[in-house]
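User: Sequence recovery, please. Input:
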């Protein structure tokens, strides 16, 4: 059996992170990490890049005998994605309920805010190094015997020095 012994087979870090984060997300936002991870499949690639599920707001129950009421799924999205999301609300509710396995979500509330995406930020323009900076950098890493390590440290140093203001 894989993963049964304490010092046996390795366990992927993603599984460990899920075990740690899932209870926190459930307690704080009422949402599981599985829903967040599967958001692209639920909302589709067009909407998933510009939206994300924020939390599930469950209605308060005063007594245990109160009937079950579906929750509200709060979705953060940016700009025009809100309009597209509003038009696909019924479909998304059905997909989320199918994902969760029961009719948990009754409606969606859209909150417009910036959504962090996987877009790569443009690198800032670096200034050229002066001769004095180049000499100091080569003197600093000159005693390192490994050529690959020396070249890597020289590139790192050049990037750090070029990012500083003169």
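Assistant: Recovered sequence (166 residues):
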């Amino acid at each position: 059996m894989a993963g049964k012994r304490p010092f046996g087979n390795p366990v992927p870090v993603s599984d460990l992170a899920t075990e740690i984060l899932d209870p926190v997300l459930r307690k704080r936002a009422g949402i599981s990490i599985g829903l967040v991870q599967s958001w692209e499949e639920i909302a589709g690639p067009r909407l998933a890049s510009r939206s994300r599920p924020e939390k599930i707001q469950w209605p308060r129950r005063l007594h245990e005998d109160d009937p079950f009421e579906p929750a509200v799924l709060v979705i953060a999205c940016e700009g025009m994605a809100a309009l597209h999301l509003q038009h696909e609300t019924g479909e998304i509710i059905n997909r989320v309920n199918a994902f969760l396995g029961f009719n948990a979500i009754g409606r969606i509330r859209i909150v417009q805010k910036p959504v962090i995406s996987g877009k790569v930020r443009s690198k800032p323009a670096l200034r050229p190094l002066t001769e004095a900076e180049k000499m100091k950098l080569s003197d600093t890493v000159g005693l390192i015997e490994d050529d690959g390590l020396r070249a890597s440290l020289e590139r790192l140093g050049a990037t750090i020095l070029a990012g500083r203001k003169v």
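The first strand starts at residue 51 and ends at 57.
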